[in-house]
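In the previous chapter we treated chains in isolation. Here, by contrast, the input contains two separate entities that must be folded as one system, with a combined length of 719 residues.
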Amino acid sequence: MNPSLLLFGLLGLPLASFLLWSCFWLLGFTWPEKIIGRTVKVVYGLMFLLFLTLCLQVYQNPQHAIEIRVGDWFQLNHYEYPLAFQLDYITMPFAGLTILLSGIVASFSVTYLHRDPGFLRFFLLLLLFSFGALLVFTASSLDLLIGGWELVGITSVLLIAFFQYRPEPVKNALKVFATYRLADLCILVAVFLAHQWYGSAEWSRFREIASHQDGHEIPATMFSLIAVLLVLAASGKSSQGPFCGWLARAMEGPTPSSAIFYGAISVHAGPYLLLRAAPVIHQSLTATILLFFIGSTTAVLATMIQRSCSDAKTSLAYASQTQLGIIFCEIALGWHTLALIHVVGHATVRAMQFLRSPSMLSDYHRQHSGAGGVLQATGKHYDALLPVKWQRKLYCFAMFRGFHEALWERILWRPLYALIRLLVKIERAPSRHPMKPNPSPPPSIVVAE
Amino acid sequence: MDYFDVDLMPSSHISDLIKLRGKVDEARARAAHERTRRFENFDQRRSIYAALRHVKSRSVHLGEPRPEYGHCTNAVAVVGRRSTTQGLFLDRRSFLISYDVTNDPEDRYLAAVLGAVIPVCGGINLEYYFSTVDNERYGCGTKLPHNISGLLGVMNGYQGDLRTGLPLQTVEIHEPVRILFVVESTPDRLIKVVHANPLLKEFVENRWIRLSIIRPDDGAIQIYRGNGSWEDLIGDEEPLPIASSSRDYYFGKRDHLPVARINANHLMSA
């Protein structure tokens, strides 16, 4: 079968179901849970079949990527927005994980969200997310990737704020949204620079440039800047380095959405971007060192925090960050296959842990009664390897999440808020312009102050 | 259901055991089917054994926020001989506590039974009551974003207080009423027992629960109205709707059902 047809089926199914349902929903229609649940299961089942067929075609000839070019969305002088897809050994594991785990999470959620007022809303967002994630993993250029990247981001934020009637989820969703925007800015600038300097932002062009097939020399800064921006964008998506900390805040949504976004797919979009941009990143020593630095420091910090957390989901979030940090390091060292295997293993296990987290208490009791009573702590864990004097200090350090939130509060948020307050004050201040004919300000403004 | 030491059973009684097993399994399946009438995602037209499988599987399903409804909807506690409620369909809304009044002239057992039953059933009922009337404050809200903390409780999402009370999923079909105790005794004897125990006195006199008696000799019912006054229940007791079996009575209905009498002759012949 024609791979392009298969791919369009794969992308079209979730998008079409999303559009159809949301249009009807906007018009005031809604369906019984049973129908929604069954349709979603059928959609993911079909997508999985399409994916398997596609897999056969890709692995028949593993050396060559399947490229599917639909044409350009638009052209503007020298710029063209290509609608092109690429299927190769990096795409397939990521796409497969997306379909499989989203399907599992969907069938889990049919019972989990039974009778919740947001039942349909949850599945709409899940379908839109699946489409976005598949777009990220199949796009053959940064331009198209951004589309999916934004969809993944916005659905993630909307699911964090799933329980809209309580203030905390909305507040935390906004914080995550702000972090995403900051990281997305990096990727946008990277696209502009890539078009300016390389002439295109396609993965194949990245490889050409990096292997100097082009003939003419490209200065090192042209690699460094784009590579650093992409590393930062990936860090934002994966809650690494300067952006670490939002992942724990994202635990406000319903459990299955935490599983698919923060255990499985969404956070691994960062490593995917890095794997695609690897040729460019490895051309720049700065970016490689930065990547390794971000990954290793986050891994160390997150593993300490994870060990001191008392609650299930924050602990899982920081455990996720630890593994992602290690994956970042692997990519920095050039061990791409290992990183790919690590991603697949980590996403699967973590999604399962998240889905099990509501039954943690009964798991705990079953484990202990299975062992014939209460399991005694052996004291044999890695923390015990540290000198006793350090253990306590590091424990306090970890309890306060390594002070990174306080640090950001002090160096970024507080000055920013102060600036905003200042600007508001300037704007609202009664004008004292001497030339003004009427010096007294309207009283209502004074009252408002 | 597991049977222990079956191998020690004398061979002469094996056939009895097999018969018993069949009956017990049928009773489990019927009970399970009656429970499933509250579960929206089970089709009542399916067999009683399908209902048993459904009830068992949802008790261990990872993604099931309502493994069972527990004591949800409970509104009555009947303390008395089991013959008092025999043949009644009580819609799984009552605590049934066995107590033989004819065997207890000095009310010693009554004091022991009520000393346990009123705080326990009354406490359970009040927990459901308050979790229903203000689920966000006295209950713990919806279960879906819950995050287990310290292996001892839950909080919402990323940060916050430990939540107390019952989740929305547990109380969503509950009717917030104070529990009605029906005790087989006489007003004087019951009040004496209640006032002898300060805890029971607090429950009863402060109206946290409602109390009534069913007279052992003629079955007349009197309701306690506080401050030592009792009121006869007149005209409300019979006739009850009659059905040939529980299944016939509840089939196709998901809401609360009034008490009914199940035709015992039909059950005997079955």
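The first helix of chain B runs from residue 14 to 36. The radius of gyration of chain B is 21 Å. Compare these points with the single-chain example from earlier in the chapter.
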